[in-house]
Amino acid sequence: MLIKTKAIVLSKLRYKDNDLIVKCFTKHRGVVSYMLRGVLNSKKGTSKAAYYQLLSQLQIEENYKQTKTLQTIKEVRLDYAFESLHTHILKSSIVMFLSEVLSSVLREEEENPSLYNYLETTFRWLDVQDEFSNFHLLFLINLTKHLGCYPDTTNMDATYFNLNNGLFETKKDSRYSVSGENFIILKQLLGMNFDEVNDIKLNSKQRQSFLNMLLMYFELHLGSFKKPKSLQIFNQVFN
């Protein structure tokens, strides 16, 4: 069955000499993996390897077969041509890091248009920005809305945030209770939009510390999540 859909590339893996296995988040069916035979040696036809850069936004026509684990793509074209996302060294570091996070947390084969629209819109926003040093922090916080574990903001006047239960609390309840600088940054970012995110001035040490806290939050709330292998490289390049 031929199905047309939008798709965002989450990961790619070389298979044999000229093939790729590409995992995408599609608008119509959630996470889908595709076998692209001969794409690394493709000199004619529409399916070129250049289309499948991490977080590329595509329009595809897939040949869907329910019994297959790996689907195939009949036709592909760019849905949006990024200007700087894959060529700017700092933005490409963000791409590498966030694509690994998304590949880890997005596993469901089901339609989620709200999440798709969030990913589509935010990466297009990043593509045209000159100031984006806090982008990944707000991106990850807002991503939790779509993963079902967004922090409860009903008691934000409290003095601690409990990473384990996602609540603001008046007492230090456990080793997962956060106060101090990370607590202040969290309160600033919650409810903020991307056009405001660079109003928060953070140095590299603060940014790294807060990111580590966020990744711990993901580990606590998303059982299969593990810290990205690209984290160390990301911190070296970006901070």
Task: Walk me through what this model shows.
With 239 residues, the protein is of the alpha+beta class. The chain has 2 domains: 2-80, OB fold (Dihydrolipoamide Acetyltransferase, E2P) (Beta Barrel), CATH 2.40.50.140; 89-238, Recombination protein O, C-terminal domain (de novo design (two linked rop proteins), Up-down Bundle). The longest helix is centred in the C-terminal third of the chain and has 18 residues, at 204-221. The radius of gyration is 19 Å and the shape is globular. Helix 4 (180-189) packs across helix 5 (204-221). It has 6 helices and 8 strands; from the N terminus they run E-E-E-E-E-H-H-H-E-E-E-H-H-H. The chain has helices at 89-105, 113-127, 135-147, 180-189, 204-221, 231-238, and strands spanning 2-15, 19-26, 30-36, 57-63, 72-80, 160-162, 167-169, 177-178.
Summary of the model, kept short:
By secondary structure, the chain is of the alpha+beta class.
Structural key phrases:
239 residues, OB fold (Dihydrolipoamide Acetyltransferase, E2P), de novo design (two linked rop proteins), 2 domains
